[in-house]
Amino acid sequence: MYIYDKFDHTITRERVAEFSQQVARRLTGELSEDQFRPLRLMNGLYLQLHAYMLRVAIPYGTLSSKQLHMLADIAKKYDRDYAHFTTRQNLQYNWIKLDQVPDLLADLASVEMHANQTSGNCIRNVTADQFAGVAGDEVEDPRIISEIIRQWSTFHPEFLYLPRKFKIAVTGAPKDRAAIQFHDIGLQIVRNDAGEVGYAVYVGGGMGRTPIVGPLIRGFVPKAQILSYLEAILRVYNRYGRRDNIYKARIKILVRETGQAEFTRQVEEEWPLIRDTGVDIPAGEEARIRAFFAPPAYETIAEPVVAFVEAKKKYPAFDRWVSTNVHPHKVKGYGAVTISLKPIGGIPGDASSTQMHAIADLADTYSLSEVRVTHVQNLVLPNVKQADLFAVWQRLGEIGFADANIGLVTDIIACPGLDYCALANARSIPVSQRISERFADLDRQHTVGPLQIKISGCINACGHHHAGHIGILGVDKAGVEFYQITLGGAGDEKASVGTLLGPGFPGDQITDAVERVVNTYLELRSSPTETFIEAYRRVGAAPFKESLYGRR
Amino acid sequence: MAVVDSNGLIADGWARLADDAPVPKGGSVVVSFARLKNEHNSLFSAATKVGVDIPSDVNLGELEPFLPRLGVIVVRFATMRDGRVFSVGRLLRERYGYAADMRAVGPFIPDQAQFLLRCGFTSFEVDDSYPVESFKRSARAYSVWYQRATDRAASVAELRQGALDGSKS
């Protein structure tokens, strides 16, 4: 993991002092709410329906056990003893008092954490593959460039007042687990014909009311020049992105209205003019940051690990959990465990302080003190010896997080929705809870197989419904919550936007509708190994429409 | 109206000239970009010093021919969130080599001072009631920065590498 040096500590400390006095000036009235708003948003502080919500940055989803313990302590000290992991690998507290925020930030700073730029029209927390460094298929660990981008984008003087928010995601592997083409900039680490490592750059993807799969604008940017390339993109966007209409202000609209070729030309024209002005970091700095992400001292373990194999034979429930929740590790004898924060009927992504402490303890005991947050709102123990998996599974069972449902129909993404959010049109959480309960039977879930349901409570699409195999969008129809269904979205390397099936369903019928879609898939799939998304791509929307709305 | 820099209030010799007002002999006047374009010959010969007031979406190529003779460029925030101002500042300094006074005007707040300074602004036009102390504090909120900007302050990465190189020798 990255460890702060004196410079990082200084900047973080100065940030706490700065925001503390901004809060004080708001309380005295020197700053109006209109003036304070962008300042507090740039510190992740939202005024929600019932209270302030604070969004804490978890850069590229990587946490130490010490940090997770602190996040749990903060939940107990300042909130209602729980917290919420988000689709951007961040963490949210929902019941925060404004005058306590300075103390809370100081607590975060004590474990090298902050809430910088987790909201506002600036460059947000960079996200990355949750299996960074442990996945066998990656070209390079994406956390290195992610940390470089974190530092470059922090309080960047030119890019704090962009037309709209700006999100960057990085994948180090051809298998995209970071949904890079749904981001303002998506970077894929690649190797060119000469064997050099660099980045393929995608620009202008996004969700919201205009979902777009971001196009590739450059196949290879050399590693040493990526920051100047990013700065060129940001400068073109900052100067020419629309500021007259909030719904047309994202870079995806600029790319679309300018035309991909012309936009790319503008970036390519800007890039050489800033390439040699000190934007790119010195070579030694990349090496310094890389060293923090060197592989830990793994043990040499021969496979098969007998105890592990025996346990799987003896305990079918454990075997099943391994099949869904343990991802292959690049080192023999290890596995990466995804902890499901999706217990049946639970709130996706929520964890109590007790649960967070327990997971941090597991990380200390079994996973080299490291935890990851996924954009699907789960947690990962990235470095667990196969021989320890059984003990981890048992302990997770004790805290209610041993569901063997990763990637299955109850591994649902849901935004906070109208239960918390001031922007929402409809509730998301209860819908996810009802669907989860309907598919509670684990045999049935495993029969259905891989299926991603994603729920948003408004068109802003924080629940990523456009990228759901089954997407659900809450809308308000004359004061009544209705839910529309989209099918065929995907957030991986075959990114696609889901297609709206038809009119929405009221809250008491949406669960039935989802079940009909699932049953239709089960009836039409060519074999038990044809997944939902594969079947949908083969047959299209028609059979599903018919099952929901009848023949037309 | 008052004018400040990062140390506080400063004296200001610039007078704003309305588009229909006659050009005074001598003196320092700030005019609109339209007037500068139309009357630059008579302006530069009559006034002692000439400045221009530009919006943040200005075409910098059109401004370029006048830059060597301008004494101040006033860049106007449309709203406090008008981030184009920051890019315009950097480009004028770093791309076009503009070296005289560059002034921000409009509804910016004290907390933006530090970023404007980093982007090459040297003076700031504010209301008389402006919280100048907050402005000065903002200008000093950070002692180091992660990235290079117009002010050419060494980035943290450069400071680190300088320190590392030093420890090796």
Weakly predicted, low-confidence segments of chain A: none
Beta-strand proportion of chain A: 15-25%
CATH T-level topology of chain B: TIM Barrel
Name the beta content range of chain B.
15-25%
Count of the separate structural domains of chain B: 1
Distance between the termini of chain B: 54 Å
Largest interface: A-B, 42 and 44 residues
The assigned CATH architecture of chain B is Alpha-Beta Barrel
Number of strands of chain A: 21
CATH class identity of chain B: Alpha Beta
What helical percentage do the residues of chain A reach?
A: 25-40%
Structural write-up:
The complex is a heterodimer of chains A (552) and B (169). With 552 residues, chain A is of the alpha+beta class. Chain A has four domains: 6-109, Alpha-Beta Complex (Sulfite Reductase Hemoprotein, domain 2), CATH 3.90.480; 134-290, Sulfite Reductase Hemoprotein, domain 1 (2-Layer Sandwich), CATH 3.30.413; 306-398, Sulfite Reductase Hemoprotein, domain 2; 413-549, Sulfite Reductase Hemoprotein, domain 1 (2-Layer Sandwich). Helices cover 37% and strands 18% of the residues of chain A. Chain A contains 18 helices and 21 strands. Chain A has helices at residues 6-28, 33-41, 65-78, 101-109, 142-153, 226-240, 251-258, 260-274, 283-292, 306-314, 316-325, 353-366, 389-398, 429-438, 442-448, 510-524, 532-539, 542-549, and strands spanning 45-47, 52-56, 62-64, 82-85, 91-96, 127-128, 168-171, 185-191, 197-203, 216-222, 326-328, 334-339, 350-352, 370-373, 379-385, 413-414, 453-456, 470-477, 480-487, 499-500, 505-506. In chain A, the strands form four sheets. In chain A, strands 16, 17, 18, 19, 20 and 21 form a six-stranded mixed beta sheet that branches. Chain A has a five-stranded antiparallel beta sheet with strand order 1-2-5-4-13. In chain A, strands 3-14-15-12-11 form a five-stranded antiparallel beta sheet. Chain A is globular, with a radius of gyration of 23 Å. By secondary structure, chain B is α/β, with parallel strands linked by helices. Chain B has one domain: TIM Barrel. Chain B contains six helices and eight strands. Chain B has an eight-stranded mixed beta sheet with strand order 2-1-8-7-6-5-4-3. In chain B, helix 4 links the parallel strand 7 and strand 8 (123-126). Chain B is globular. The A-B interface holds A 5, 7-8, 10-11, 14, 17-18, 21-22, 25, 30-31, 35, 38-39, 121, 151-152, 154-163, 235, 238-239, 243, 273, 277-279, 281-282, 284-285, 288 and B 57, 78, 80-84, 86-88, 90, 94-95, 109, 111-112, 114-116, 118-119, 131, 134, 137-138, 141-149, 152, 155-161, 164-165.
